[in-house]
Amino acid sequence: MRDLKIPEQRHPEKAHRASTSQPKKPSWIRVKAPGGAGYAETHKIMRENNLVTVCEEAGCPNVGECWSQGHATMMIMGEICTRGCTFCNIATGRPETLDVFEPGRVAHAVEKLGLNHVVITSVDRDDLEDGGAEHFAQTIRAVRHKSPDTTIEILTPDFLKCDPSVLEIVVEARPDVFNHNLETVPGLYPEVRPGARYFHSLRLLQRVKELDPLIFTKSGIMVGLGEDRQSVVQVMDDMRAADVDFLTIGQYLQPTPKHHAVDRFVTPEEFASYGKAAWGKGFHMVSATSLTRSSYHAGDDFARLRATRQARSGGG
After folding, report:
1. Domains of the chain: which residue ranges?
2. What is the pLDDT of residues 25-69, one digit of tens each?
3. Burial code of 267-276, b = ≥16 C-beta within 10 A, e = fewer?
4. What would the mean pLDDT of 143-172 be, rounded to a whole number?
5. CA contacts within 13 A on the Cβ side of 146
6. Per-position DSSP letters for 228-272, written without gaps between them
7. In sequence order, what are the residues at sequence separation of 6 or more whose Cβ sits closer than 8 angstroms to the Cβ of residue 270?
8. Model-level pTM?
9. Are 139 and 103 in contact (CB under 8 A)?
10. Quick one: 35-312 is in which CATH superfamily?
11. pLDDT band at 225 (very low <50, low <70, confident <90, very high)
């Protein structure tokens, strides 16, 4: 395990506050409006089980494609977040009490949808002593019980205000993929992710590997927030120092005029260049496109990631 070293100096980034004026959205990130029988069936199952999805709450541009295939990212622990990140469209405020029946409903929906791979995420719950770690673990166990062949990917908060030991609760439930997004370069954290700490998030990912080296780790950032290439490449190096297996890079899209403004739309050629750089740094899986999101094609990517590990270990 490599030591995670904090650089002595960072290049500060420009702050880009909310604005109604932003670059025109290019053709390469336009998507079809959601619809069709598959979309309707997924929507029905979500509503019948009283479940929240990040697909809807975050206004994901891929919701039409994913839901038409029966794929949805479950968001547990409510619809209200205790953080106020300027890129995120999820409501900020005081959350309600945890629903003890939610893990069972998530498991039922996964079974009903017949998912081979499920992504489970959550809002930040700084109001809870364990940040929701036990609720994550219960949800993982419930899905395993109902659908033992389904692989499970979790996208967790940073558990910043909790005792560090709470991470062990989640890891001991043995998700197949542990994802925690860094979201942006460190110089933009005060403006974009003010309630979080860059190196705490890096350490969280590294700690997962220390607790269980067999769990795949994953993290992602958005571009188009005001970062430069040097900062993005440095984030790649930081992630590899933390033994992160899978990197995602996608275009930031401003949810409303009140949110952080889009600085620019990164071209497909630039995304391809980022992807090439990431592969060269040793990531086991990379997804870098305008429409890349944490859970977009997550099942297919996980299958390739697992196959890569098996090939490197001689088929074991």
Report:
1. 35-312
2. 787 676 554 445 555 665 566 666 666 555 444 455 545 455 454
3. eeebbeebbe
4. 96
5. 21
6. -HHHHHHHHHHHHHTT--EEEEEE---SSTTSPPP--PPPHHHHH
7. none
8. 0.83
9. yes
10. Aldolase class I (3.20.20.70)
11. very high
